[in-house]
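Our preliminary data section would be incomplete without showing what the modeling component actually yields. Below, a chain of 103 amino acids is followed by its predicted structure, encoded as tokens that our downstream tools consume directly.
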Amino acid sequence: MTHVSRAWTALFTLAGLGAAFVYKPELLTLYLRTTMTAIETGTAALPYPWGDRAEVVLRGIGGSIWMQFAFAIIVARVIVWLIERISDVSGRNSANTLRRRRH
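Predicted structure:
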């Protein structure tokens, strides 16, 4: 089941990126700029020689298409997880309310 969910998440993310490319290319631009800004901000917090070195490495890796796909898949999984948690909590609250009404 784990591989099915991984494949589903990857296909869902690729479909979302493809739809954004066709219908909302400004979202992809925002996504790329945000990830590059995050790299710059994170490496700026490191001491002098290490911050510059880390930025070069992360920009080289982070700028590649595969790293962007991997990060997008992680974001998609977090969004699905949050939706699941919210629906689980609201479902539990509904069940508790129903249980109280029966007594």
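The first helix runs from residue 2 to 23. The chain has one domain: 2-102. Preliminary results of this kind motivate Aim 1 of the renewal.
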